[in-house]
Write a structure and sequence with these properties.
By secondary structure, the chain is an alpha+beta fold. The protein contains two helices and ten strands. The protein has helices spanning 120-125, 153-190, and strands at 5-22, 25-33, 39-44, 56-64, 71-79, 89-97, 103-108, 111-116, 132-141, 144-151.
């Protein structure tokens, strides 16, 4: 590696994926939450099949400083099939109580819960007009249940559509490349 990069490994749950452009190229801004409830933002140039909200991944990261700011760029991704996926759950958020510890009160699967939330990114996504129906990701930790991501229903539908489109495009590119390889092999054999 050059002096502008450093290898890092991050493991955790994928809790959001957002298409962004960097230097005119499509990338994906992916938020990972580690088992210790730390949130990390990483960037991916491709959207590999299997990448979706709630899956547990091990990422090999390159810390890039090329643009003057540090960015965590995914160099390799490994999906952990032995770690259960976190299933997004439709939840009605009733109240956000700010104090020494910020908590949200919500209905999830017919149960009323009060859950501490420390991540400002989550709190920013909760609308001011409550109650609000949201799609949420919850994670069991040694400290109890934690809210690790929230989406409006529309955001969640859009994320699923992006995933389907990205996977479809990747399959089409692979098929196209295979057809070109086959065509080139036929030309070489003919000559």
């Amino acid at each position: 590696m050059g002096k502008d990069t450093k290898d890092i490994t991050i493991s955790g749950y994928v809790v959001s994926v957002e298409p962004v452009t960097i230097r005119g190229l499509l990338n994906y801004r992916v938020r990972i939450v580690t088992p210790g409830i730390q949130s990390k933002i990483v960037y991916m140039r491709e959207f590999p099949e299997g990448l979706e909200i709630g899956v547990y991944v091990d990422l090999k990261i390159v810390l890039s400083k090329q643009t003057g700011e540090e960015k965590l760029i995914v160099d390799d991704i490994m999906f952990q099939k032995n770690v259960p996926k976190i299933i997004p759950v439709e939840t009605v958020i009733e109240e956000v109580s700010r104090g020494v510890t910020t908590t949200i009160s919500c209905w999830r699967s017919g149960r009323y819960l009060s859950i501490p939330v420390e991540d400002e990114e989550i709190l920013k996504k909760i609308p001011e007009n409550l109650p609000a129906k949201m799609v949420c990701l919850f994670m069991d930790t040694v400290k109890g249940l934690r809210l690790i991501s929230v989406f409006t229903e529309k955001e969640y539908r859009v994320l699923n559509r992006i995933k389907e489109l990205a996977w479809s495009i990747d399959r089409q590119i692979e098929e196209y490349e295979k057809n070109i390889d086959d065509y080139m092999k036929n030309i070489i054999e003919y000559v």
